[in-house]
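Lab notebook, bench 4. Still working through the backlog of constructs that have no structural model yet. Next entry is a single chain of 336 residues. Request: give me the structure tokens for it.
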Amino acid sequence: MFNFADLKKGDTFKFPGVQDHEVLGTIAGSYNRLVLRVKGNGHDGGGDSSVFKIAAAHEGHVDDFRGKCEEIHGYQQMLKVLGVRTPDPITTHETVMNGRHFLLEISPFTGQTVHDVMTTASETEALTLSQGMADTALRPILSQETRGDGNLRCGVDMIPRNFTRDGAGKLHYVDLWPPKLWLNGEPALEYPEPVDSEVIDLGIFRHFTHFGVTQAFLVQLCRIRPDLRRKFQDLIDQFLGSIEMPTTRKQMLASPACRFQNGEPLDRVLAPLDSREIYDLRELACELTFQGRLIPSDLEQIFQDSHFQDTPLPGDLIDQIKEALCAANATGELTM
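Model written out:
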């Protein structure tokens, strides 16, 4: 990514049309962007720093890339209307350097990611943060008016890495790119946009459906703290009850992982699952980890192996994941 990826603490960040800034460090967590914390123009209440998110256009997708600045602002405005707190203000810039197109998104630094906090948090703090993410984004997202096809008009990616906690304890949803919107009747999911129909359907499920958004949130919580899976399940069940979403609540309680949790044999639960049910497979891995049958490092490996961007996961990989889950169930020792 030009020479941006080589920047380290103390270096100077330069971008045409933007004042030079001193780099304070990198922020991990993005597949498509480099994220830097820089000195100056911050609103974090305890310092003076900003977040710079830099993305480079992919070869063959420059035309799609050029319109992203407007989409970022449109997405933030829609989130604001719904009541989702985001860093403010946001500015965006585009430029071409050495023949490559770059997009820069600038926002105030709003604290450490919730993901990083949760890894070492007490049970009480982890549950408080989870409730905070639900109140900050899940509640307004699930409460919005849906499209005619039943999908959400404005989507979201409910993973703890997409939230920060500022010095006053407020949570912010910080993932504005790619915007999760419907543009010209089509869902905006990633950059570049996937073209495979199965990948598109999975993206719509995860970002634009009541059940998909909620299940993805639960699975990501359990990925970080599998020891708290029952607590997370109770929290989300109570949350869905509080916003009167009985259908989604029933879907959550009827997931393959919950059926296995309630005594259904694992091989029977696994049998019909394929690459279209990757979130069910991940939740089953979380359940096995909670039961002490799968170690956390193997759980993380399953998440990494099951990551997909623009093509479906191959059938042999799905079979390997199923085999790993069955093996863990057969040989693992309960630690509950």
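Notes after review: The chain is about 45% helix and 15% strand. The two ends are 46 Å apart (CA to CA). Flag for follow-up if needed.
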